[in-house]
Amino acid sequence: MENKEKQVIDSEAADQILKQYIVVRFNKEQFGISINYIQNIVRMTSITRVPNVPDYIKGVINLRGEIIPIMSLRIKLDLEPDEITNQTRIIIVNVDDKLVGLFVDEVMEVLILEDEQIEKQTKEGTDKKSKYISGVGKLEDRLISLFNVEQIIAD
Amino acid sequence: MDTSQYLEIFIEESKEHLQSLNETLLVLENSPDEVDMINSVFRVAHTLKGMAGTMGFKRMNSLTHNMENVLAEIRTGNIHITPELLDILFQCLDALEQYVEEITNTGNEGEEAYESIISQLNDILKNGGTTSGAAKESSATPLLSPEKTDESKGKANKTELNEYEKNIIKKANESGMLAFALRVKIDEKSMLKAARAFIVYKTLEDMGEIIRTEPSTQDIEEEKFDQEFRIFIVTEHDKEQLFKEVSSVSEVAEVEVDLIEISDELATEEVPAVIQTPAAKTVELEKAVEKPKAAQPAQSKGDSGSKPKTNTTVRVDVERLDNLMNLVSELIIVKNGLETVGKGSQNANEQIEYLERITTNLHESVMKVRMVPVERVFNRFPRLIRDLSRNLNKKMELEMSGEETEIDRTVIDEIGDPLVHLIRNSADHGLEKPEVRISRGKDEVGHVYLDAYQDGNNVVIEVSDDGNGIDVERVRAKAIEKGAISEEEAAAMKDNEVIGLLFRPSFSTAEQISDVSGRGVGLDVVKTKIESLGGDIEVKTELTKGSKFIIRLPLTLAIIQGLMVELAGEKYAIPLSSIQTIEDVDISEIKYVQNEEVIHLRNKVIPICHLEKNLGIVRQEEQTRQKMTVVIVNRGEKLLALAVDSLIGQQEVVIKNLGQFLGDVKNIAGATILGNGEVALILDVNSLF
Question: pLDDT digits over B354-370, tens only?
């Protein structure tokens, strides 16, 4: 009996984790990245440029002996280029064992978004931005665009 | 039973066993009477059978089982080894290798049952050793003659046991066990004779060691017996127990148990105990019979689901691991030492020197763990030469040296195919026909040499022969004929340049395309492969004396010596192995040939490569310098001058890939981490040419 209860709690806790999003900022807009993909968040470090790759690949960094490519979401989303500040962070995401670092202007907080708080992106977006957004989370008066991380990495 | 966790062990061990089988068969071919070798082959077949059986690989198990039957007969001297027999055993070996290959790739043994090999093996058993006259004499062994089996009805053990079996019985008697001969008769009406026999066999197997069955186990399994069969067993149990157990198997009509006494040569104490069992079927037992049969296909179905490819493994000497462990302990000691440095009690420099020494040793030890002897690749070549010798009708011998030379595991896996190509080339193109050899005053038997040795940071593998050598004029003529070069070009070419043509795609000089080589897919593939491993290949040849292919490979792919250079503030590593020289060139010395910048250096015209273009570097301000530094790199005979801003120095470079996401990047071979934690890219020099 006790075991069973514990399992229920565990699975609830797991559900809670599934619904967690890290909220990041680009300009004044807020975006959410599902915590499931996130491996690590690191401060700005020295980046080595790599030639002959698409322009949104800013280069590679060394993360504890592993070489990880860094992608600029701003360029990918057709926003103005990154401005490196003290708040800039690199979010390392893991999709199918591919590790990629994403530049963000700032990491703000961790949120839990229930399914009913998320409005799925339905209309076929034509611009790059809507292509990489899977839905919009609504929390009180805030709107948080949720990244479709797999799509971003797959392209 | 889920055996997937044992799959890797199975594959690794099977490969080892097959290798030793290969070696022993080759020895047997030259000296067929080596009893040790026969025993060793038998043991390997037996082990493989057991392993395949445990893993549920039925077809592989059946093949080895049939092999074992034949080998057992060879061992007892009933069958003699003939070249034909060895050929079949080699075929078995190939088939087993196929199975293992298939299992490695898919986790499943595949559908091929190699029935023809099995039937050949059975033919040998029936005929007592194919065509050999000596073997025919022994075909009168009672074991295989059905008439004898009939005669012996009622006298379960009245079969001549061979020496080997007698020996077992003697040993068993010494250790207090008894040998019995059982005659079991299955009910006439039984629909599942083989299944019943199988249960009897299983029952007995659980009680003791079965030393022989009549007819053979294989035949019993295939229902190739009338109604009765006989089993010879060594067991701790007594006659009554045996009788009881066997009688309890349904549809067993008659059981007869006799004690075998070996002391006075086959004189037997005969106490027949015959009972009639009711032929009534018990439902439960029926199920028990169906079960193993039904379970088998289900399991193999499960296996056929796409299994991931197994990992490559390295077997490591425990001593090397101990060494690593020691170094890691020392590392911890230094760490503790460094902690006290802050408190002023220790000298920091001293500790750092200590640390440096440990990391260097650690690096060496780790590299050693990845190293395996080239023997792993070499040991399949004696077989290759044997087969080539037969196919080509040329007498030849392979001489190998330096098998113990060690090379990185990743290189080992890749180097096999290129070497096969070269050895085939030597055997086919290189070695002359025996008549020609004799007329040239050479030994009729051609020689192919395979030598490996370490040379600095490289491992060199040489494939050479004492054959005809490369006929440069013929290559020249062929190249013109094929339109690869014009006649003027051909005339201007030096001999070694002409030989270089052999490495071009689709170039073969063999007059007749044979099964072995001459399709022109050889040497260019060899060259590409070796270059992709960071090595190079060159040829030395002398007409009528022979030729030599020299392969030079880096000791390891994981760590190389690199020259660090700077370009517009960025750092790049150039592999030292491809660097010829480094020169300071005056800007005024740059000449133009066909609008390309070149420098003239020691009678060679070398094109200049401005890396900015290849590496997409945009300079903030144009350089205005009087001198520039160029690094001269080579790819085979070709040279290229890489213009760099400045040199940083030589250093050991640990190669890392750029990660799955980026995959292959043009002009970049990988990345490395510098002392300060920054990442520097490694140039792919070959791609710049």
Answer: 888 888 788 778 878 88
